[in-house]
Amino acid sequence: MSELHVHGVTSAGEREAIEAAGAHPVVHGDVAAVTTEAAAEGTRAAELMRRHWRVLEALAESVTVLPVRFGTAMRSDDAVVEQFLAPRHDDLAARLATFDGKVQMTVKGTYDEQALMRAIVESSPHVAHMRERVRAAPGAAGHFERVRLGELVAAEVQARRERDAAAVVERLEGLAVESRAEPAGGVDGAVNAAFLVERTRAAEFGEAADAIAAELAGRIEVRCLGPLPPFSFASEEAPAWA
Q: Residue 218 carries which DSSP code?
């Protein structure tokens, strides 16, 4: 067998689920590494990353899986056991027990930029006044006013982002074991939060997120992703391998 990419770790009894996800199990004791053979030379990194996520997400639909950092590769089954599973067996088994029956649900939101700008102008007389000054100022004469307007708008967007993200998390955290707010990417990012949820409540959580999405439609586009492996919760606890 060629070099193996290691995607995650699950219980040794999950051979069938691992194979159903298109992966190869490497078992040691109570744990199993989820692996695939190295892709053909020249495969783009983006495609490798997509494969990594596909395997993990397919497993997370039905079993508890701990993600391993993308790009982890070893030369053989024996190397996976000797270098990875055996030295960490007890720790990996304990972490699997900690996350047993739990999945990550991630909620992301992006602003409708036009709606956001309208709301800021309508709610901030200072921004509205500065905007009119910028419009009236010719060319270079309005340079400093434009800079100042940009600063004011950026501050208003950040304040609104913090309020909106906090409101979404507050609505959903009662359905989760744990929640974690993360930076919202891009200038139009509104919400990016991860929730550790009991698998049995994942559907209920998704319905609650959908209700929020309906309420915020036209202002913020809200998406709920999951069930996922506990990327935001497991990796920080085990930086050496995840």
A: T
First to last CA, the chain: 24
3-class secondary structure, 83:
helix
Tokens 């159903």 label which residue?
A: 20
Residue 153: DSSP 8-state: H
Q: Are strands 189-198 and 220-228 parallel, antiparallel or unpaired?
A: unpaired
Longest dimension (CA), the chain: 74
Spatial distance between the Cα atoms of 93 and 117, rounded to a whole number of angstroms: 50
pLDDT tens, position by position, 45-98: 888 889 999 999 999 999 999 999 998 999 999 999 999 999 999 999 999 999
- Closest-CA residue to 21 (of 53, 69, 46, 49): 53
Map out the domains of the chain as residue ranges.
4-100, 103-234
